[in-house]
Amino acid sequence: MKGVTYLVLLLAMAGFGFGVYRIAGALKSDGTHVQRPTSTYAQAVPGKMFVAQGGAIYRFQNGTFTQITKDAGWTQPSSSPDGTQLVAVQRHQNYSDVFVLTDSGRIVQQLTNLQSPSVEGNHWAFLPRFSSDGSRVFFAYDDKVPGVYEVDLTILSMPAGRPGRGVVWTVPNPYTGGDTDPVPLHDGGLVYTKYSIDNQSAVHSQVWLTTRAGAAGTPLTRTEEDCAQPAVSPDGRSIAMVCRHGELQSTELVVATFDQSSGTLGPETVLVQGQLSASPAFSPDGQTIAFLAPVQLGGTFQLWTVPATASPSPSEARPITQSVGLDSTSAPVWD
Amino acid sequence: MSDFSARGQRLLGVRRAIPLPQPSRIIVGFLLAGLIGLTAYFLPLFQSASTPVVTSGGGLINPVSGPTEPFTVLLLGSDDDSKFAGDQFNTQSMILIRVDPINKQATMMSIPRDLWVPIEGQRYTGKISTAYQTGGVQATIATVESNFHVRIDDYIWIGLAGLVRVIDTLGGVNLIVTNPVMDDFYPADINTSSPYGYYRVALLPGPVHLDGVHALQYVRSRHGDLRGDFARSERQQQLLLAMKAQSKHINVADFPDIAKALNGELKTSITLERARQLYSVMDQFDSAHIKRILLGPPYTSEGWAGSESVVYPSWGQILPLISQYFPQ
């Protein structure tokens, strides 16, 4: 009987030791744990959204996520003016292509074919957007000479749904990485982000406006503001963007009135500051802005919303998700 | 009945030979078991501490300062893939850091890897990145000390694979990609038997959460940027700040994973106890109080030494800067 007692005690001690080992492991920090969106629930928002995570595009509607593409490099969706189609990027090791999809993720058309047998012969296409009439797709494209070091993105547009040639819209500053974030306007103009490097070797980003392909654009923001990732409101009268003001670890989410006819921005209102806010997008009624930011310092990017017109108050921004780790360079689509 | 009783007595007698353990012994047993469990958990940490990564270099490294005294650390980063034999790496990244614990200020200065300087212990002038290849960490430290007129208290060398694994262990890092990082000739030399290959890199701008591989791409790419290696140096400093911010999340339970991640990829003169002191000092620092220096023009100028593209130092500009930010 006592032998059994000893055996039980020894087993209990061994179990205790193993338990201590496991508990020590459980105390590890878990600040960046990421879940698949489909395994989470979130507070519902009006309408539907599309977001990207880990190479797949998800539809968010009524508080639940539905995966609409395979995990195959899909990112940066944007919706057509009538909301029935998406244009999105499928990214591979050395190239990416732009596709038109249904809003349930079925491929309708491959707009680009940028793969090449040689590494440097490949091309990139990123950040596609439909024009306001849905007839063309604008995207950032590395219009480069294969074999040279210079690889700068320029804004290109291509016909959607029919064959046709691409049209180059912008001329990037050399060796800066180029121009990104095309946002076609109702009147045929284009808002985008242009990068530059000054005489002190400091990098700047500015939101620019150009009225037609190949025309010299004009900056809407100052170099020292370092603004990028513009989103234009549905009525075309406001622009939301992120500005870093020379900072490297935090951004401000700002909104400003926009006068397309004069090509000017009004005073900026800071909606969110002290966070790493990214990739804003307006709601269909223009009253709310969705954006991506970590919930906690060092965490992965989550979906947030903030009133677009309210007076600035940190408490008014609220996280919609907590642990899904979204692709922060892929702005939410809000239909 | 009596037989049974006697047998029972004998049985009892036999059992009396094995007394039940006293409660105190049981407690000690459980404590020992718990200690063994903890030891097993922290074993990678103990192993790394006992591995001779701590190199005193026969008096090369100066005695460590107290935690309240300013101290200088040289951070070294190397490609350590199969292109290189043994310990003969180039130091692709060299960052000199001075920490002032009392004033809670720090300065980090990137030394251009192509800086054309006399290599200590060698009879030639060459790129400063080759000092490690020819004379190891001793020659590297001596070369920096003699050319820059600074005193280096400690050094940390890390291999590229170790950096990737540490960042992954931290759970990735958050930073702002300031402009599109485009590189058509990024070396495909990690986890491969063919280290001379290359692939394309495109990191889109904006706030991002990067895993180890993409963070390495961010700090290693240089071909598509007007500022070349200086852009890379700036991004390396940015990554250090991001890693510092990310390290606020870790606790002692994360140390074994970090030790495993660094296995064979870290060399340092810093002891575990010293590292603990430094960590507590750095943890109190606000990134806004960290001065960042890049030795671009007018401190340096690009040129050619024979067929080599090099960076020439302008010591008349550099040394006053050193006196100001790295006083001895």
What do you see in this structure?
The complex is a heterodimer of chains A (335) and B (328). By secondary structure, chain A is mainly beta. Chain A has 1 helix and 24 strands. Chain A has one helix spanning 2-26; strands spanning 48-53, 56-61, 64-67, 74-79, 85-91, 96-102, 107-110, 125-130, 136-142, 153-159, 167-168, 179-184, 190-197, 203-210, 218-219, 227-232, 238-243, 251-259, 264-275, 278-282, 288-294, 301-307, 318-319, 333-334. Chain A has a 4-stranded antiparallel sheet with strand order 3-2-1-24, with no helix packed on it. In chain A, strands 4-5-6-7 form a 4-stranded antiparallel sheet, with no helix packed on it. In chain A, β8 (125-130) and β9 (136-142) form a beta hairpin. Chain B is an alpha+beta fold and 328 residues long. Chain B is built from 10 helices and 14 strands. The longest helix of chain B is centred in the first third of the chain and has 19 residues, at 23-41. In chain B, α5 crosses α6 (212-220). Chain B starts with a helix and ends with a helix. Chain B has helices at residues 2-16, 23-41, 43-50, 131-148, 160-170, 212-220, 229-246, 255-261, 272-283, 315-325, and strands spanning 71-78, 91-100, 105-110, 116-118, 125-127, 154-159, 173-177, 181-187, 198-203, 206-210, 266-268, 290-294, 300-305, 308-313. In chain B, β4 and β5 (125-127) form a beta hairpin. Classes of the chains: A mainly beta (335), B alpha+beta (328). Chains A and B meet through α1, β13 and β21 of A and α2, β7, β8, β9 and β10 of B.
